[in-house]
Design goal:
6 strands, six-stranded antiparallel sheet, alpha+beta, disordered N terminus
């Protein structure tokens, strides 16, 4: 059972994505990559598309093309949007892991 305690921190869910985490300003343009839709950042965790406000994951579930849908219908929104050509999830990972070389050596 002690082994489980060591594993737990790695399984811990990350906090919800916020644009401030990756220094994306309100008003910035993002691309929803599955269908190349352009959306605008409306708040720290919301986007605007066709004058409606959405959170990333519900938008992804709503606008994901049929051919690219998964069976659960649940999506991590940050994996489907880019800012200046980079996936939001990748931008977040870069910030959360400031020096990936050191962290691999330590493992």
């Amino acid at each position: 059972e002690e082994q489980n305690e060591c594993v737990e921190p790695h399984k811990k869910a990350r906090p919800r994505f916020k644009f401030s985490m990756v220094n994306i300003p309100i008003g910035a343009t993002l691309i929803f990559t599955p269908s190349n839709l352009e959306v605008r950042v409306a708040g720290d965790d919301t986007i605007e598309y066709q004058e409606r406000i959405y959170k990333l994951s519900p938008f992804t579930g709503t606008f994901m093309p049929e051919s690219k849908r998964n069976t659960s219908g649940a999506y991590q929104g940050a994996k489907y949007f880019t800012y200046q050509g980079k996936l939001l999830d990748d931008l977040r990972s870069e910030i959360e892991t400031p020096n990936p070389i050191n962290s691999t050596i330590q493992k």
